[in-house]
Specification:
The protein is 73% helix and 2% strand. It is mainly α. The protein has a single domain, classed as ABC transporter involved in vitamin B12 uptake, BtuC, CATH 1.10.3470. A two-stranded antiparallel ribbon has the order 1-2. The protein has a two-stranded antiparallel sheet with strand order 3-4. Helix 4 packs antiparallel against helix 10.
Length: 335
Amino acid sequence: MTAHALTGGNGRLAALGYRYGLLVVLAAVTVVFSLGRPAFATYDNLLIVLQSVSIVGIVAFGVTVSMAAGGFDLSVGANVGFTVMVTAFAMVRLNLTGATAVGFGLAAGLLVAAVNVLLVVVARIPDLIATLGTMFLFQGLALILTSGQSIAPGMAVGDGTAPGRFTEGFGRLGTGRVLSVPVPVLVLVLLAGAGHILLVHTRWGRALYAIGGNAEAARLAGIRVARHRALAYAVSGLCAAVAGILLTARLGRGDVGAGDAYLLQSVAAALVGFAVLGANRPNILGTAVGALFIGVVVNGLTMLDAPYYAQTFVQGALLVVSLVISFTLSPGRRR
């Protein structure tokens, strides 16, 4: 066998690994967990996994859109937490209706997005620095709003108790089902479809990818870079707000720091998505698979009684593997 044939064979293997490697790993992990715990491979457990990753996936969709435009929104976790506290405050402390509280939550997410736009687009501060500042700003604002306390029905307020409560209709957003499918899962699927169409099949999405590839070339081609980047951060803020509203409905309270975990998980899902089917760029379907992958791993480890502190390590290892697949095995990096 000639050296050229060997090289060609290795190249084909690398190409296959680049395109399908992550899906093969996901299938292998699923088989291992199913053999270890037969209950893992059931429809009911699949719904549990999907519901557990729905919030992460929705937040990650917003991160993906910001990354497509060459940005990086580090404020999404703080945005989720701020939305949770504002929504809970509106219902419990102000005794407003569920629909009004949802409006307050969406407004909270857009407020975070507006600050990001002012810092990144108007003031031209680098994305990472600007959104990091926004993260700390709204984490602190959420604490100030509630004096550092969680919000729950019947909580003490002055000499009395809070007048409001979480209505049954609002609670269904987090725990209700439609045709046996949890509402957050339906929202995840709808947003995934809409986000995929937006990025892949519209001029706006193609413009975002052009900006992410080379903002100056996109500007010279007539694309309004500032406007598109502002809209990308608005989408990211709205996704985080929707996730925060669903999380509030699921928890039935406003917990301080409720959104803290979602930054790293959503970023991990978006980056894992780079390695799905060799996309090697931010994409909604890859992000959805990345969120599912993380959910499968966490659920499987939990069912196998693995210690909770090992889950973070496994998620980190998963992210490293996906980055190796995406950036080391990519055709542009192979020699």
